[in-house]
Amino acid sequence: MTATILLKNANCNVTISKGEVISFIVDNEEIMHCKDAPGWNATDTEMFPIIGSTKINNYSIETPNGIAKQDQHGLLRELNYQLISSDTTTAIFEKKYVKNTQINNTKYPNKSTQEKLFWPYDFTFRKIISLSKNALKINFEITSEKGMPYMLGYHPAFKLSGFGTEIIKTSEKEITLNDILNVGSAAYKVLNTDEIILIKNELPNIKIATKNFNNFMLWTEVNNMVCIEPITQYPSLETQEYSEKNMRISTGKEYFSVTISTL
Prior knowledge:
Blueprint: E1 5-8, E2 12-17, E3 20-26, E4 29-30, E5 44-47, E6 60-63, E7 66-69, E8 82-86, E9 90-97, E10 103-104, E11 116-117, E12 123-132, E13 135-144, E14 149-150, E15 153-159, E16 167-169, E17 174-176, H1 177-183, E18 188-191, E19 195-199, E20 206-211, E21 215-219, E22 225-231, E23 248-249, E24 253-262
Antiparallel strand pairs: 1-2, 2-3, 3-4, 5-15, 6-7, 8-9, 9-12, 10-11, 12-13, 13-24, 14-23, 15-22, 16-17, 16-19, 18-21, 19-20, 20-24, 21-22
């Protein structure tokens, strides 16, 4: 795969590295968190087929096709994207997984006791990144066996001023950076909403609009970035159990979208 791909229009450009959006610049202002800056060592990633930790439950996930072994946020991020196609405004990436294939867990042994991960279903996961005026759109297409339980989360990080004064606004409330910091690693949950606005004072305000996720969680441990994460479900923190009761069930082909735009 080409080391980096650049999408560009009159006032925006997006840099993609191996399927990860590492920069989104609008009118010369960087919108995304730089992975080399304090806070998190990535700019965006995906959580699939589960969201959340699995340690308490011995890294085990119950499915109709048998027990799976998954570490935190699933095994998708352990797979490499393949570039399907690209032009000046769109790039399409894909990951394919064959059921029960043993995947090395990069958290093992320093951060996990689970050496291998596997999932008892085939799936194809497409990430379609496109650029339009003042907006970056990320579409996800998941093809799998009908009846497969799953959770999906998109995990982008946004650059902040460092002063901790930003506000995250929904249709019902305003959330401060301190509110998110106080929740800690559990992440602040925002349920039953498809849109969030990040109010950034002197910097461009940002709208994150989604389709088919229906929920968000918010996370940071620093003042210079915040992750605003569309999710299908908020994970069970107490039991870390995953089954059809707290996951979605695939119809065979599922579609999701996230649009990041400036205001």
